[in-house]
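Model: You mentioned two targets. I'll fold them one after the other.
Researcher: Yes, keep them separate.
Model: Target one:
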Amino acid sequence: MNIGDRAPEILGKDEQGRDIRLSDYRGRKLVLYFYPKDNTSGCTAEACSLRDRYAELQGAGYEVVGVSKDGAASHQRFKEKHELPFPLIADVDKTLMETMGAWGEKKMYGKTVMGTIRTTFVINEEGVIERILSGKQIKTKEHAQQILD
């Protein structure tokens, strides 16, 4: 997916098994962020950055949805442990990640592996991607500020 593309309508199921759709956020900007794994240091820092500035993000017209390949039970524990106020999509079959281009080859410890590419899509009120942050561009501890800037 690229800037100017329309995001897919069906995003997936959250940690409660609820369907999450793009149209649920019509009229609001959506921060759709993809992260590799629940309860790892970088992913926790990123989620907590978004949690800590969530009211400010909402005040600026944003909603937040996280996505990883972890299952619903893992997402529930992650949300509870870190008091995350936004839904987490359990994309266990990687459908949304592959559609959005957030799954692919990456380097890990000097080896090329397939995995989640840390990526954030900022989607406007009409469902069109207006900004993409990916890989090393994302500062996990300051991610909310990156979105607000």
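Model: Target two:
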Amino acid sequence: MNTKRLERLKEAILDHGLDGIALVPGPNMVYLSGIQSHLSERPILLVIPADDEPAIIIPRLEAMKAEAAGIPANRIFAWSDEEGYAGAFQQACAHLELSDYLIGVEALRMRVLEMELLERYAPGLNTTHAEEVINALRLRKDPDELAAMRQAALIAETAIGQLLPQIKIGQTEKQIAAMLLQELLKAGAQALAFDPIVSAGPNGASPHAVPTDRPIQSGDMLILDWGAIVDGYASDITRTFAVGEVSPEFRPIYEAVRRANEQGKLAARPGVTGQAIDQAARRVIAAAGYGEYFIHRTGHGLGLETHEHPSIMEGNLDPLPKGAVFTVEPGIYLPGRGGVRIEDDVVLVADGHESLTTFPRELMTVG
């Protein structure tokens, strides 16, 4: 268990009037315990009381992970496939006296299975959403987290530098995506942050396009959105390139997006809100006459997940603290014609922001 993070969590649990938090496998469990597993037919539940040691219900074949995390042996409720998990849940709920608890759970991850088991063996247990408690902890990145994210950004930018000279007119989006994947792994990515987005011409009008068999053509705008994982932490970068001759229609569009990216980052500093950053970027695109074609938020949090807290968008009025990491990624998308997006990863520092991504933002030609 990460002792510092655990103590901060326990303080937050008490501040929110909870008795504890229950986590299923995923980023929050990794963040607090280092235990890496995945949701499967074998349920795992980590319970962190406000006033006691953590406890875990876990398959016997993975119990060594709990031991390595420093969870006391008498608080590891292991079960085998032959025994089934019901007995372990019953023993844990009785031992922890969960019937009297108000437990925070992950509303976006907790399954019906785990909830039914808790309700069955801890009658009277009350649950509430835990996201507010945990998001506040994960929002401020510590030096080790930032070091991993800087390396993830460096690897992603090294990969794109190797890819660009290989891109040729006539290659398909799928072919370019495969080449990018190879370059990411060769550059040192431990995993991909997500499946790369490669979209050209009309396909670029969809922000989350999936690579197709369409060959890239002269005059296309080519959007590449990619990222690497280092020690569990992600980078997430987007650049847009001109294929062959630049379309006259898209040169001013590209410039509007570039300036929106710049203004969004300039607005980023401790104490500012996600809404203020979103508005700074959106004003540039609206002034250029393309406001209705900027169809998503300006950015999202980045860390153990490629999309996490905070949301850089209208309506987010929470002041952002030093150490928060998020993307600034304005875009313009013209249905049937194409799109442009430029995305950087930034961290808030004492006097403003630092961009973890540095790849050039001026329009470059490929192919």
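Researcher: Noted. Anything on target two?
Model: Residues 143-163 form the longest helix (21 residues).
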